[in-house]
Design goal:
The protein is of the alpha+beta class. Helices cover 36% and strands 23% of the residues. It is built from 4 helices and 6 strands; from the N terminus they run H-H-E-E-E-H-E-E-H-E.
Length: 162
């Protein structure tokens, strides 16, 4: 029966192909292309550091002044030669994303790693990225903070002081 080994080889080959396709898909999701298709190269960010608040602070060159020590997040004020920033670690990825989404209402620069965020001036965040890796997210303030309410985004051009 010559057809049986052929069939087994095909099934085995199909399984290998499926595993390889899955690995290629995962690899494609975890790396950034060096070329965006328009001739400009995009630098690949360094891998993000991991660890506790204290471990991350040490990698960043900071002696952390812990201001919040809760089950869902830990937060510390830090100061380096580049300036001041806030370093926050999170118990869950979801908690981190919710925190970032709310914090972005106030604008700023955020260096984001796996279950941690550093917030500071753009120059400070850029310097930290060299030590901690991660990706930079920036946000413009959604409101001036004077009105106290969120409101709609449509009226932003009317926020002028006379």
């Amino acid at each position: 029966m010559a057809t049986q080994p052929e069939g087994r080889g095909t099934r085995h080959g199909g399984a290998v192909a499926a595993v390889l396709a899955g690995l290629l898909l995962l690899a494609g999701c975890s790396t950034e292309p060096a070329d965006e298709g328009d001739g400009r190269e995009r630098p690949t960010p360094p891998p993000a550091a991991t660890g506790t608040l204290e471990q991350l602070a040490k990698k960043a060159g900071c002696a952390p002044n812990v201001s919040t020590d809760a089950a869902e997040l830990r937060q510390a004020n830090c100061r380096t030669d580049e300036g001041r920033y806030v370093l926050t670690t999170f118990a869950t990825d979801r908690g981190q994303r919710e925190w970032i989404n709310e914090a972005k209402d106030y604008g700023g620069s955020y260096l984001v790693g796996r279950q941690w965020v550093a917030v500071g001036d753009p120059e400070v965040v850029a310097a930290l990225r060299g030590r901690l890796g991660g990706t930079v997210e920036t946000a413009a303030p959604h409101h001036s903070g004077e009105s106290g309410g969120g409101g709609s985004e449509d009226g932003h051009s009317g926020h002028h002081k006379s």
